Backbone:
């Protein structure tokens, strides 16, 4: 099972705390990879929050292709940062030749355009780069969005951290919101794109468990939006549903819970808003989560959310201290980095509630 | 009792056949009939009667509704001892025997009522596999007609499909007995989420206008069988069962009226909410329905426009005059005559026109509060029809009911029953995948019928259809079989068209209808639904789902490669 954890902090943090959580939560022989999305960046990317940041791993040929494509589209390179990667063969990591993190200035014609149009440009660009590198088998493009960095790698999370020097507290990668996941072992033909957290237009999501309605979700989503693509992991569907409900439909976030785990009909019928909920259930019947799943997500405004499946078949816990809120699939993960917190205040989200952590780090529990 | 008499047999007399000619073969009885006369060898069933154990009570003869059995006197020879010095002599008894009537008006249908009523187990019909029925039965230039389902369907595809994706380790199976299952399906037109009339007000979604009517119902419906095709008692038993399931067990099962109207008392009762009223090309019963509308205290569950049915696609309903009793005439508003619904709705010109005329008028009749669905026979053209309806711009097409070749009927020409129609599963899959390709799955729910429950296992059949994309299934004949119908797909009975139903289900003859115990039949149907409900859960639990897995074809595998390829599910061996 995937181990997932997210931190929302007042102060910038390095990746080490989430890595410590991953290691603490590891069970048996799982952990075949590590992936992380950092948002609200600091460190080396501080001061460049408005510029889209491209995260990719590729070969030199792949980078050349990407460069040409970005030039063609009119993006101007503003900042290029590449991590030093430990070449030691003792480390269990399937390195890519290059890890590229670059800030670009928008093409001139887009600099004065509204964000809606820029969003489309950024998504289209990422999809085009992804397609380009996939066709030539020269690399992976994970995200292209302001103030968002993505790293995904195959191997032992400890060694991945070692190779990228992620254990260091004083280091260039710093962020106030970090979501991370350790890959599980089920699928040995591991595809980097299948590693969550997944990111789309400011929405980040990761989950654990098995999406038993994967086929239904995928069949429905693939016609909703060209950006709903890949489907290498069944968890991607949960991100696309989140994006569809909140971004495309413009529904308040609590309706995400109504879509993924609709109330039982009997309970629904007793509510004054039953007609609305029934319509939502009908219209979104193919977006339901009906297996054992916990999802942890981050919204474009930086709020963090946590939700469980309707039977609470997968665990999740939210702990906090004064400076950070931590959500993790296992409480040992929270204990690892917040051992002195008041654990009686921990929140174990129920099957009928949505937990939202707002920008002031207030943990809100919204009953469905 | 048989009289006993002694007689000497006139050998000369019996050597002559019925036409007074001398037999060349020497077999005394060999040529008492013309070879062209009908004989037991011609018919699908032969009566096996045991003279030794029969007590001559006459129950079999009295029970046979087809007059296939006749009592007759039979002379039986025996040897006796006579004289003071006993010497053997020939003698004969005349006894009552049971004779099978072998003519086209009275041939044995194999219903087995004689066997059921015989107190000594002395009589039973035996299938005559090498009969000549198809070549003798069209006498008078009349096509063969019968009821039941198609007979000549090779294999049963549903049985080659298994639930092959089991939740283990990666995700847990559920507990069918203890988890909560939410097994309802939407009947009615669904709007895409971005077209729902909703707006955000104070952080909540509120409705801003009309949206198409929709009901959440149990995914197994009782298919359309009319009062007329069914006896009033059988129809009543179905309605009773549906009422009981809803009121006592809160299982929202819905039942379709069939094309034959409904009793006014039901039309004006609260139980109308459990009924789907059908309108077919004959419009039978609609005079009464329309007149009852001002008195209706609730809306019906839906309206079903019947265009075709799987058992006899392209043909209209047929209620033989034998079944048009006085009460049927009253309900339908017709004289005593064969009632033939036209093959088409009069005035129906195109799909788009049907939406504008038929759907719109039926929607308007109930002020757009009742889903209006359509039922068609599965056909090579089904996807085109479905596709067209999905584009209905008024959002008034509330369901697509598709009936396959294994669907049943009360009366049809056998040539249609056995040789025309389309299997349902591939067409269901085609329609669903077509909707998927457009991102419109679920907007018009697909309900399928035709052979579901044929083996008695309705839950398994329904579950597989749901995984293939059906929002639900409708079944009909299985409920008659539960009530006592003995018909099967191998030629047993199938006499629904004759008005002589031996169990009082498909007849309007009061003496036959009295054979059906309404309450017992209703109880059987309720029990069956409760069992089916448990069985559905026993199939959903292993795949880890508590909501209906509509379109979850990854849960299925087929052990037949051709089936797997055609339905786009996994092949397993």
Residues:
């Amino acid at each position: 099972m995937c181990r997932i954890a997210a931190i929302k902090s007042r102060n910038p943090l390095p990746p080490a705390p989430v890595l410590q959580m991953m290691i603490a939560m590891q069970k048996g022989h799982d952990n075949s990879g590590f992936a992380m999305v950092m948002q609200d960046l600091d460190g080396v990317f501080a001061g460049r929050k408005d510029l889209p940041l491209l995260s990719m791993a590729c070969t030199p040929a792949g980078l050349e292709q990407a460069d040409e494509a970005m030039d063609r589209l009119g993006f101007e390179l503003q900042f290029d940062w590449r991590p030093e990667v430990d070449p030691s063969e003792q480390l269990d990591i399937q390195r890519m030749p290059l890890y590229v993190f670059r800030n670009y200035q928008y093409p001139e014609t887009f600099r004065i355009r509204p964000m809606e149009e820029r969003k489309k440009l950024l998504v289209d660009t990422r999809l085009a780069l992804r397609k380009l590198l996939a066709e030539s088998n020269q690399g992976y493009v994970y995200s292209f969005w302001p103030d968002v960095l993505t790293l995904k790698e195959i191997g032992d999370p400890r060694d991945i951290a070692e190779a990228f020097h992620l254990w260091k507290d004083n280091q260039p990668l710093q962020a106030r919101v970090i979501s991370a996941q350790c890959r599980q072992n089920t699928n040995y033909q591991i595809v980097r794109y299948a590693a969550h957290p997944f990111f789309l237009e400011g929405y980040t999501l990761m989950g654990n468990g098995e999406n038993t309605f994967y086929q239904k979700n995928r069949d429905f989503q693939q016609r909703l939006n060209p950006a709903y693509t890949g489907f290498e992991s069944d968890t991607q569907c949960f991100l696309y549903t989140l994006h569809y409900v909140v971004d495309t439909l413009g529904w308040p976030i609590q309706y995400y819970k109504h879509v993924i785990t609709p109330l039982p009909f009997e309970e629904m019928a007793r509510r004054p808003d039953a007609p609305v909920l029934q319509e939502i259930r009908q219209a979104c019947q193919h977006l339901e989560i009906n297996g054992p799943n916990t999802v942890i997500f981050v919204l474009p405004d930086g709020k963090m959310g946590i939700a469980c499946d309707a039977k609470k078949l997968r665990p999740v816990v939210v702990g906090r201290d004064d400076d950070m809120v931590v959500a993790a699939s296992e409480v040992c993960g929270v204990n690892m980095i917040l051992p002195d917190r008041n654990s009686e205040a921990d929140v174990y989200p129920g099957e009928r509630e949505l937990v939202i952590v707002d920008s002031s780090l207030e943990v809100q529990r919204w009953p469905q | 009792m048989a009289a006993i008499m002694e007689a000497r047999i006139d050998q000369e007399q019996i050597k002559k056949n019925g036409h007074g000619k001398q037999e060349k073969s020497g077999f005394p009885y060999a040529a008492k009939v013309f070879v062209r006369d009908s004989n037991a060898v011609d018919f699908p069933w032969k009566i096996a009667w045991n003279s030794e154990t029969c007590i001559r009570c006459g129950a079999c003869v009295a029970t046979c509704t087809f007059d296939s059995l006749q009592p007759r006197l039979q002379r039986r020879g025996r040897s006796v001892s006579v004289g003071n010095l006993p010497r053997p002599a020939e003698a004969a008894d005349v006894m009552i025997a049971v004779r099978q009537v072998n003519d086209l008006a009275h041939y044995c249908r194999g219903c087995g009522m004689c066997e059921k009523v015989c107190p000594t187990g002395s009589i039973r019909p035996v299938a005559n596999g090498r009969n000549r029925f198809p070549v003798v039965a069209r006498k008078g230039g009349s096509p063969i007609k019968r009821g039941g389902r198609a007979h000549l369907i090779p294999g049963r595809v549903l049985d080659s499909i298994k639930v092959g994706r089991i939740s283990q380790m990666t995700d847990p199976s559920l507990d069918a007995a203890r988890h909560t299952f939410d097994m309802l399906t939407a009947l009615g037109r669904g709007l895409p989420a971005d077209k729902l009339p909703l707006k955000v007000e104070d952080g909540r979604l509120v409705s801003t206008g009309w949206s198409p009517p929709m009901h959440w119902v149990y995914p197994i419906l009782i298919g359309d069988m009319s009062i007329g095709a069914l006896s009033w008692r059988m129809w009543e038993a179905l309605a009773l069962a549906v009422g009981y399931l809803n009121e006592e067990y809160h299982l929202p099962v819905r039942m379709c009226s069939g094309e034959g109207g409904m009793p006014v008392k039901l039309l004006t009762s609260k139980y109308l909410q459990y009924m789907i009223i059908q309108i077919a090309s004959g419009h039978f019963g609609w005079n009464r329905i329309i007149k009852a509308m001002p008195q209706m205290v609730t809306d019906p569950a839906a309206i079903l426009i019947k265009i075709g049915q799987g058992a006899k696609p392209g043909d209209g309903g047929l209620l033989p005059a034998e079944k048009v009793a006085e009460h049927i005439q009253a309900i339908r508003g017709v004289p005593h005559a064969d009632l033939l619904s036209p093959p088409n709705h009069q005035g129906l010109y195109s799909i788009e026109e049907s939406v504008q005329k038929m759907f719109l008028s039926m929607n308007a009749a109930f002020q757009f509060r009742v889903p209006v669905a359509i039922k068609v026979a599965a056909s090579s053209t089904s996807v085109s029809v479905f596709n067209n309806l999905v584009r209905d711009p008024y959002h008034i097409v509330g369901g697509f009911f598709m009936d396959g070749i294994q669907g049943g009927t009360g009366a049809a020409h056998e040539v249609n029953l056995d040789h025309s129609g389309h299997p349902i599963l591939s067409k269901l899959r085609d329609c669903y995948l077509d909707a998927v390709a457009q991102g419109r799955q679920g907007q018009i729910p697909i309900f399928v019928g035709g052979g579901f429950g044929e083996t008695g296992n309705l839950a398994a059949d329904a579950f597989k259809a749901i995984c293939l994309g059906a929002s639900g299934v409708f079944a009909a004949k299985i409920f008659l079989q539960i009530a006592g119908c003995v018909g099967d797909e191998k030629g047993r009975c199938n006499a629904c068209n004759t008005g002589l139903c031996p169990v009082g289900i498909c007849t309007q003859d009061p003496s036959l209808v009295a054979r059906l115990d309404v309450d017992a039949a209703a109880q059987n149907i309720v029990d069956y639904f409760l069992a089916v409900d448990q069985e559905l859960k026993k199939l959903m639990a292993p795949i880890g789902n508590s909501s209906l897995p509509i379109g979850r074809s990854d849960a299925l595998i087929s052990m037949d490669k051709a089936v797997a390829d055609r339905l786009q599910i996994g092949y397993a061996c």
Remarks:
- Chain A has a mean pLDDT of 94.
- Chain A touches chain B through 43 residues (CB under 8 Å).
